[in-house]
Structure formats: C-alpha cells, structure tokens
Design goal:
Elements (H helix, E strand, L loop, with lengths): L4 H10 L3 E3 L2 H6 L13 E4 L3 H14 L3 E4 L14 E4 L7 E5 L4 E4 L5 H8 L4 E2 L12 H7 L6 H4 L6 E7 L5 E4 L10 H15 L1 H7 L26 H4 L8 E8 L1 E2 L3 E8 L3 H13 L4 E7 L1 H11 L8 E8 L1 H17 L6 E3 L2 H7 L1 H4 L1 H7 L5 E8 L5 H12 L8 E4 L4 E8 L4 H20 L15 H8 L2 H12 L16
Parallel strand pairs: 2-4, 3-4
Antiparallel strand pairs: 1-2, 5-6, 6-10, 7-11, 8-9, 8-10, 12-14, 12-15, 13-14, 13-17, 16-18, 17-18
Helix pairs in contact: 7-19, 10-12, 10-16, 11-15, 16-17
Length: 505
C-alpha cells in the first residue's frame, strides 16, 4: 500500500514519535540481515505505548500491514514488510524495573542485549544468551525469534527466560500474558486463551508426532507448550515467543535472570576428521560435563579464519569448549574434557582460564562469519541452518559436505554441536540469480536431510520468508492448527503477514 501525503500527515498527527516516508530511509528499512528486500510504506519510531496503539489503529483503518523491527539482525526476512515498519530500537528501549534479589527485570522491547547485560553486570546478573549479534539484537527481536546463541546447551533459549509479556493484539486490546487465566471473559484475550488450550488438547497426538524432540526448534508456533503432557503450566506468552511478530506487538517484557558464573575456562581442540570431533562432543555431553558452549568449525572454515585473522590453527575439524562454575569446577571440567578428546584422537587440547587467553583460543569462532565473507571479497553471506539429534550430527554434516562440493561458491560449515544445530554459510555474488538458485536448492536438500534424521528445518534463524514450505513439510497438518490460532488473534493478517504462514491477500 502506498500512503498518500494526507494519510501520512494523519498518522504523524497521532504520534509523539517519528514518522517518515523518505525514500532513502525506507530503502534502509527494506532490508535486514537476510537476502530479501521489501520496501515499507513508512517507518514509525514509537516513543511510548500510545504511539504503538495509534500506529496499529491506523493500520486497521487503512488495511495496511504492520511489522515490528528491532536491530534488523534477522536472517530470514522477519523484520521487513510492505506496510508500516515500527522500529522499537530508537526510543522504546528502556529498563523499567530491576529486582536484583528476585533475579527479575522488566524492560521495553527495543533494549539491546549487550546494553541490558552491561546494566545487570554490577549486580552479578545476566541474561545468559550469547548471540553473535548481541551488540545490536533487541529483546523484542529475540523474543520474536526465540533466539538462543552459543550457550543454549546449558542456558536454553529466550523462551526459558520470559515470565510475562504485555502485548497489543490486532484489535488494539492490551493484555498481560503470563501463567494466569484471563481476568475478563468474552474478550479476544480470553477467547484466544481458550482456543489455544483446546486446539493443543484436541491435537496433542499430532503435535507430539510433528514436533521433533530435539534441543533447538524455532519453526512455527510453540503449540507443544500447551499440550496436556507438557511439564510447565500454560503461559500464553510462550505462544508469542518465536511467532516472528505475526500474532501481537510486544510492549513490555518481564524476564528472569541468571547469576554470572564465578569462573570460566575455554578450550580448543582439532581432530583428524569430522566423525572423531562429533563423537568427542557427544561423549563429553553423555559423561555429564556441563559444557556452557560447544562449537564446531570444519577445516574449510578453519582455513578461512587463519587467513582472515592471521592465525595459525591446524586446518582440521575443530571443537571449541567453554566451561562455567567455581574455580575448582572449571578446571575439573576442562581436564575431564581433555581426557575424552584424547580417547577420540583429538589434540592438542589447549585450554585457559584468563580472559585474554580464552579470547585468543576462541578467536576463530568469533571471526567465523567475517572470515567466510573474506573468502570472496564483495560477496554476501547467505546463512542457512538446520538442527538434528546429536546422534545424527556426524552423518548429516558428512552428507552436507557432499552437497556443497559442486557449488559455484564457497560454503563453509560451523555449528552449535552441543545441541545439534549447524549452519552452512553460502558466499554468493550479489544479484547472481544462478548462485541464489543453488542456495535455494541446497536449503531444500538440507531440510530434507534434517527431517529424515528426526530434526527440524531451523534451530536458530526461524521461518520468515524463506522456510514456509519447509515448515509445512515438517509440521504437516499441525500448520493448520497454527493457522487457526493466527486467524483467531489476527483475522485480517495485519501482523507481519507472509511470515511463518502463507498469506495471499
């Protein structure tokens, strides 16, 4: 929809925040960290909850879509849309309340993860989700994507830290979503609460069959959180987590926090082949060593890191470890891991506790994406991911290596092997349709490989614009349950349409 000057003037008059249709600014907001581009009709930077309500009311009146945006770091096109874009990162980014004794914090959705953790650090607290984009990723965006990062093997995902959300539904109602029942009957909130529980109960067998039992899955709505056999009491905020902005706009977030670990140690170890590396990773986890981070880079990626960062790692499949705990515990954990990797032919196993030494050991992992881009100057990186049971990881990575051999561009592998999630970074020439077609073919093949192994089409990047067909293949009839929930909460498809679920206006 193209907004007329009169409509833009009307919208601007309703808000304290900024409204612009400047072509240059709209072009900036037409992209995120994905390869997709959609030009918005206008960009709104709300200053308060009233601004959000006014923008949403405008969209209802004019039948235009609304897309929430944080740091614009999404890899699957979740943060772009053709209607209004609401940028929460500019003015809607405050820390509202901190309860150190209860390890809780209440924030606005636009606050950036690193900024939040910097404020929490003097209290010995942290939101322990280690994202590569932590300097830009906002809490609202992390909730929308159910982000995890490299420490998820111990600390879990965003959904594990959300206690309640204050959200704005498509009809304009503002509700608090937590583990309590709706206070007012016959409202959209109450009807949706009942519908979600009824659908999850009626289709619990289908949901159980279609949702893989793995450590990471961020595709589609979290229906498995509401089945009768789920371990946690129902909390409707968990439906919003991972929904990619398609069900509600987030106005306020209540999070639980973790204590900053007393001590940290880190290690790195090369292996003769992928099988040995993955076997060592599995053995480390099976022995019960509480690894906080367990990462894998293949030899192509290691060579790229050596070249990019002037390093001298062995150019071999390599595991990166991090251990958290007391001073004694991190030494014991590192020594136990060293024994395991030695039994699997790995070595040398180098480890350290001092911050500077830890950073040097992990330098290749920190630089992985930029090192990939440097393999082909001027190219762009298209990152795709899948997640599989850890027991199937070595097989899937081997098969993936076969798939990338005949591509016309570099495609290194790295991953969060502690929970079976791995990435292929396709370094393609901007505007090269042939290479983009190869990327899409590879993505479809990776999805098939993951699903055959009992995994999921995405463990980190979400569905967005690029994996709707993959979600349909993975979840089958369960997608129609998601659609019923979408229709109940947002019948006019105002909220970020075309993401997660198909939408034909």
């Amino acid at each position: 929809m193209t907004l007329t000057p009169l409509q833009l003037s009307d919208l601007s008059s309703r808000l304290e925040g900024d409204v612009t249709s400047d072509p240059a600014i709209r072009a900036m907001y037409a992209t995120d960290a994905s390869v997709y581009q959609i030009l918005p009709s206008a960009v709104v930077r709300p200053r308060n909850r009233n601004d959000v309500a006014a923008a949403l009311a405008f969209c209802r009146e004019h039948g235009t879509s609304i897309t929430a945006r944080g740091g614009g770091t999404s890899q699957a096109g979740q943060a772009i849309g053709a209607g209004l874009q609401l940028d929460f990162s500019k003015h809607f980014s405050g820390l509202l309340e901190l309860q150190p004794d209860h390890q809780r914090v209440r924030v606005q959705p636009g606050i950036v993860l690193d900024e939040l953790n910097a404020t929490l650090k003097p209290y010995g607290l942290t939101l322990p989700l280690d994202l590569s984009t932590s300097s830009r990723a906002t809490i609202g965006g992390m909730i929308s994507n159910n982000s995890a990062g490299t420490r998820s093997v111990v600390y879990g995902k965003t959904i594990d830290y959300v206690e309640s959300l204050t959200v704005m539904l498509a009809d304009g109602s503002v509700v608090v979503l937590d583990d309590s029942l709706p206070s007012t009957p016959d409202t959209l909130h109450a009807r949706c609460h009942e519908a979600v529980l009824n659908l999850a109960n009626t289709h619990s067998a289908e949901i159980g069959q279609r949702y893989p039992q793995i450590l990471r899955r961020v595709g589609g709505y979290n229906l498995d959180e509401f089945t009768p056999d789920h371990q946690r009491p129902p909390n409707l905020s968990r439906l919003i987590v991972g929904s990619e902005g398609t069900l509600a706009l987030i106005a306020e977030v209540s999070l639980k926090l973790s204590r900053i670990p007393t001590a940290v140690s880190a290690a790195v170890c090369p292996f003769a082949d992928i099988d040995a590396a993955i076997a060592a990773a599995i053995a480390t986890l099976c022995q019960g060593i509480p690894v906080a981070r367990l990462e894998f880079l293949d030899e192509v990626q290691m060579a790229a890191c050596n070249q990019y960062s002037q390093l001298s790692y062995p150019e071999a499949p390599t595991l990166f470890f991090e251990f958290h705990g007391s001073d004694a515990a991190i030494v014991a954990q590192a020594e136990a891991a060293a024994e395991i990797v030695a039994r699997h032919g790995g070595g040398p196993f180098r480890w350290a506790t001092a911050q500077g030494e830890r950073d040097r050991l992990w330098q290749a992992r920190y630089d992985a994406y930029h090192a990939c881009r440097a393999l082909r100057p001027g190219a762009t990186g298209y990152v795709t991911d899948v997640c599989v049971p850890i027991t199937a990881l070595a097989h899937c990575i081997r098969e993936t290596r076969v798939l990338v051999q005949d591509l016309d561009f570099p495609a290194p592998l790295f991953g969060h092997v502690g929970d079976g999630n791995y990435h292929v970074v396709c370094i393609i020439e901007p505007g090269n349709e042939g290479e983009l077609a190869q990327v899409k073919d590879l993505g479809a093949q990776l999805v098939d490989l993951a699903l055959q192994a009992g995994g999921t089409c995405t463990g980190e990047h979400g569905i967005g614009l690029g994996k709707i067909a993959a979600l349909e293949k993975e979840c089958g009839p369960a997608v129609e349950i998601m659609r019923k929930i979408k229709n109940a909460l947002d019948p006019d498809y105002l909220m970020n349409p075309g993401k997660v679920l198909r939408h034909t206006p």
